[in-house]
């Protein structure tokens, strides 16, 4: 491969890696990437003309100008700063790929790659970023090296071009070595700045949130059957660390609430927006849910203004039982804030200026939503963990339905009277709302959980999918169970709503957190119990709620999850406080006073010692690399050392054989007829001289010399 | 002949593109380097502004690349040395071959991407306006050598490259001032180190091919200039010296005692007059006068052409004084050209 071909391939590779960092951070639409990749491939395989034609240059200029206008329009009119910018960068990459004859065009490709990497650094908080970044460094630096040599050829004329082509092709190994060294240097520089450069987070020029695609399942609508595809996805979406004293179990049974929907029609749940969004009120630094203007939580006297606990509810003994949990939610493309049922309050724990710009807002049906930039968020929530007992729920009786709850009785006109009849027959004789709920739950207990949905003739004829589930197949997954329960209860006038979120969490022993995975996605029902509020019921059979271990290697998965968590904590979450803590640990900063001081000798001494040891090790390794000692020489030195121990020192002008002859001649009387070392020593010396100063040494000859050396050393003992 | 002292060339004031220039070193930022620095500053600003840790990493890596680039290029120019040898005669305005030996004085690291170029501070750089309107400044032609480039120079080794040098005027001059330069590793910066004072060379007048009729030998006596005459002379003249054997030499002229001593043929050289004797006459004049320069070039061209003719001896008379008696051979050619190179200089 010529240097030019190598540069060509590396240029494309560095762009591909940089784009991969953006793709992995969901910073660009797949369609844009696919289009750009297709055109880049086309540009790569096509024969490059010696000079770009003026016509094609004019066409490209026009196209880029139009794209620039479109990008500005998208950025300012639609607020798609990121997507528009990345799309424009991809277009520039394609344009350069079609005209990359000279070194300057490759330099521009490298510049575009760097810009893409900058975008990747903003949007990608995944564990893949450090790996891709390291790879990018090596590839980009090698591209720079190769491009530099070729540019020197272009600059200095045809004679130098020929010299570069000739010598460059032979120097690729050397160039790779240089690229690795420089990449290591850049990596160390990056690490140093990361560790010690103070985090200011000035926050100038930062504007509102970037528009994002919202993933189905936690948005304003859900099609029945949407969960099936993610039930086998082991990706961790959230990591939870309980902050208050709770009983820790390997598998939690919490319902992590995301979105709630109240309108059902044609197999689709949506938000009716008939009611106002649940407002949030501030208590200390918490945003507390306040449906109908009444906060669900209150600050605790004596504990501190910042602590929020659930507000007590009359007739609900455990209503004050609550917990605080810190959660790190991955960017799964939704604006829902996930909180364990029943949600009371949330407090963001931003890890930088970008996250600090996130804003919480109340959603419908006691949802909490967030406007944020791409990337994971960290927050703390307060939940009511206590649930009313059956007796407390029965005590409510059959509460009346105020106008504000009418939307939760909505009934799809498509549903048949058969459904109403079923609901009434099931709850016939139920004295209270709880008995009605219980009757329906018992009815659904006989149904089978499955992700494989059987076809129903009724549904094929146009009936609502939930009727097929209730009357024909009696098989479905959580959405069917939850929907069935909700519509049946509505048939008898009980306000209900469906909730989408995650069920359960798995303890990660390595990272010491609870991991919530995509496979834990779940749906359940909330039923209104008047003064007691909304109460969670889960009609799905317990076997179908938790996804179990969907990963092929659960242990490995735990390590990966823990690593990801550590990365978020130590890299993404690294801030000024942690920097100061690091300086304190190094003894460079006073703990309480926060004043800078000179380190004491006790602190400096170990580090200085370590530095000296490392410096010597590097020097030794360097010398060893530059001047490797041949195997035969090492063997000879061992034998020589043994002779020296017996008082025989080789003169500088003596060969091995001559030295042995002299020594044996002198020691002939004392050490037997042949002198010290005897025949074994002489044979070794002869073989050594032959190998050391003869033709190239082969492996078998070295093995023989090794054996002779062992014999000689044994003879010298 | 009075040796000339070459005046130190006037150096135009350094423009801003050279960031540092001390102890014979200079640093220049290329266009790509400016872009890279701008990008680094932008990333740094974004990092400080946003507090994004990954942007800090990126910023640190870019800064390290800038510093690493400086360290590597400094290591390269510090350990690179170069010597230049002009091969053969150097005629004014004519490219002459030159060897450049680039040496790696270090004993460990290979040097990559080293060039030996003219120090462009010798020449006035075009102003921004000139560059903008693509006008090149007109001025006196200056000596220049084509740059040479070595992709790699192994540790404690040297590589030899060939190039050409053009000296615009005859006389005793110094070779163009040269620098060891490198853009290694990324082409973002150019680091240069001045080589020592360039060596002095004698630049012969330009020699042009002459039409056959221009030779005074082939002109009738009435058309010849004053002092130009021809005549039969002895085949063997005064003993001049010894030289190594060249292919085609007459074996009868081998100096056998020396050949026996050195075990290789050694030739006798005589200041032999040729069959035809020609004394060229040059009217007095001063260096730089176009008419005088043209006349010097004409005389030099005739002398070279005649001396290539077997059996022709050529001499030179300047201002009526015979400064070189007629003789033939390579040595006479050099004497003539040297005399013509320096004629008219103060």
What does this structure look like?
The complex is a heterodimer of chains A (717) and B (346). Chain A is 49% helix and 15% strand. With 717 residues, chain A is an alpha+beta fold. In chain A, strands 2, 3, 6, 7, 10, 11, 12, 15, 18, 19, 20 and 21 form a 12-stranded antiparallel sheet that branches. In chain A, a hairpin with a 2-residue loop joins strand 6 and strand 7 (286-289). In chain A, helix 2 (30-45) packs parallel to helix 4 (81-98). Residues 204-216 of chain A have low confidence and may be disordered. Chain B is an alpha+beta fold. Chain B has 6 helices and 17 strands. Chain B has a 6-stranded antiparallel sheet with strand order 1-2-11-10-5-7. A 4-stranded antiparallel sheet of chain B has the order 3-4-8-6. Chain B has a 3-stranded mixed sheet with strand order 15-16-17, with helices on one face. In chain B, helix 1 (31-50) packs antiparallel against helix 2 and helix 5 (290-307) runs antiparallel to helix 6 (330-342). Chain B is elongated and about 90 Å long. Mean pLDDT of chain B is 78; it is low at 1-19 and 223-236. At the A-B interface, helix 5, helix 6, helix 7 and helix 8 of A face helix 1, helix 2, strand 5 and strand 7 of B.
Question: Quick gist of this model?
Answer:
The complex is a heterodimer of chains A (717) and B (346). Chain A has 717 residues and is of the alpha+beta class.
| Residue share in β-strands of chain B | 25-35%
Global shape of chain B: elongated
**Would you identify the regions of chain B where 5 or more consecutive residues have pLDDT less than 50?**
1-19, 223-236
Distance between the termini of chain A: 57 Å
Find the structural class of chain B using helix and strand composition. alpha+beta
Instruction: Give the distance, in angstroms, between the N- and C-terminal Cα atoms of chain B.
Output: 11 Å
Rg of chain B is 28 Å
Largest sheet of chain B: 6 strands, antiparallel
Low-confidence sequence ranges of chain A: 204-216
Instruction: Note the overall shape of chain A.
Output: elongated
**Major sheet of chain A, described briefly?**
12 strands, antiparallel
- Please indicate the percent range of residues of chain A in DSSP E strands (runs of 2 or more): 5-15%
Mean pLDDT of chain B: 78
Which range best describes the helical content of chain A: under 10%, 10-25%, 25-40%, 40-55%, 55-70% or over 70%? Answer: 40-55%
Q: Give the strand tally of chain A.
A: 21
Largest interface: A-B, 64 and 46 residues
Oligomeric category = heterodimer
- What integer is the average pLDDT of chain A? 82
Kindly state the number of beta strands of chain B.
17
Query: What percentage of residues of chain B falls in helices of 4 or more residues?
Result: 25-40%
